[in-house]
Amino acid sequence: MSAPTRIRRLARKRGSLLLSAVAASTLLATAACGAAAPAGGGDAAAPPNKDDKLTITVYSKFTDREYGVVTKALDKLKAKFPNITIKHEGNQDDDKLTQSIRGGNPPDVAISFYTDNLGAWCSTGSFQDLKPYIERDKIDLEQIPQAVRDYTSYQGKRCAMPMLADVYGFFYNKTQFAAKGIAGPPKNTTELFEDVKKLTEFNPDGSIKTAGFLPSMPFYANQAQYWAPNFGAKFMGPDGKSSLASSPAWKEMFEFQKKLIDFYGGHEKVEKFKAGLGDEYSKDNGFQTGKLSMIYDGEFRTAFIKDQVPSLDYGTAPAPVLDSLASQYGGGFGTGTIIAIPKGAKNPGAAWELIKQASLDTDTLVEMANGLNNVPSTKDSLNSPNLKMPPQFKTFTDIYNSGKLVANPTTPIGDAFLKAVNDFAEKWQAGSVPDLEAGLKKVDAQINDELAQKGAGG
């Protein structure tokens, strides 16, 4: 898989924890800086006539090979509007987009990788409400899973559509499983722990040689938001406030993490082993070299394996769940790329036509999914015979369409709440948090203070 893809995934999973906090504050400033009001006073702008000549400007973060894949897909709009030009400007991040809105010169269409910024985009009006267009064109949103509908809206306002999705599940080494007499992937945390004990090998000095599953956070795709659905842990309570300390699920999740750390002989041994593993997006990724028998990861890992270690015999499955949550097995965490009409767009009617093409047209979605190795976002595209992926990819389309997909809540503080929880996880695993509940209460207070400053969660 290309370097641009590695950068894109790294940005979504890690860089956003730092960048979106900055972007969110910038976005909130947008509303106070005189950005143009939404076009049409809340009404849907008319679509262009078939022969109209105009240019639709699109901002995205795509570059290189991926830029070409997306540009080709966007250009499919020409079949309906042959005289429209699509000006796709790649390598445009959320800060550049915000600056263009503040300056009164936004693109017609915005594509963002950072779904966790959506609350800030929506709450400031930086993205226009798409409800009038959806109602006018009688769009069937049931084609999109509920969790995906949730992360593309905020407090009932639909200000974005999904373009493609990332879904997280479990990868396991079939060769190592067979060698240890393990018939299949673990379905619950008890089975996971037992498999870890069978698969893990120690050196004569007690250091870790091969780890069944490494519980460090943050590490590769080990982040709180990817683990949480499998423990039934929710970031926000019904009142919109952080509710970690009052949730048995969070306690069980962190106690399970500690149980694994203790099995390996403590935090220091785990960190020493981790330091010898390759970069997440390199050929030397710990799972790809056989140093890790099981990992959490997204569907895009299948493309890395095909490109970097095609001989690896591996399987995929939904991540194991807490024993008491057996009915939730088969689900998992999802996020994705979003597409929207920024405030002040010059051609909102034409922009909506392009958004429909990129988020709802089966052929367009399948073409992009095949080119980018992502999950297409509608049920029809999931079932298209033209979707060409390795057998292991099906796990992720099944999770996406399971009715058990979970996404992060949209908040006006971006993903600052995720950073707070992942920072806590790092301290907890190191043994520097003596009281779990007291530690979680501090995290709740930090998150709720940030929400209160933005007028939310009250």
From TrEMBL:
Question: Which PROSITE patterns does the UniProt entry name for this protein?
Answer: PROKAR_LIPOPROTEIN
Q: Name one GO biological process term.
A: maltose transport
A GO MF label: maltose binding
Lineage, top-rank taxon, reads Bacteria
Hey, which family's this protein in? Belongs to the bacterial solute-binding protein 1 family.
**Gene3D superfamilies (UniProt xref):** Periplasmic binding protein-like II (3.40.190.10)
**Mind telling me which PANTHER family this protein's record contains?**
MALTOSE-BINDING PERIPLASMIC PROTEIN, MALTOSE_MALTODEXTRIN-BINDING PERIPLASMIC PROTEIN
Organism annotation: Amycolatopsis echigonensis
Q: What does the entry list under GO cellular component?
A: ATP-binding cassette (ABC) transporter complex, substrate-binding subunit-containing
Transmembrane helix among the record's keywords? no
Q: What is this protein called?
A: Carbohydrate ABC transporter substrate-binding protein (CUT1 family)
Q: Does the keyword Nucleotide-binding apply?
A: no
Where does the secretion signal sit in this chain?
Answer: 1-31
Mind listing the UniProt keywords for this protein, alphabetically?
Signal, Transport
Q: Which InterPro entries match?
A: SBP (IPR006059)
Q: Which Pfam families match?
A: SBP_bac_8
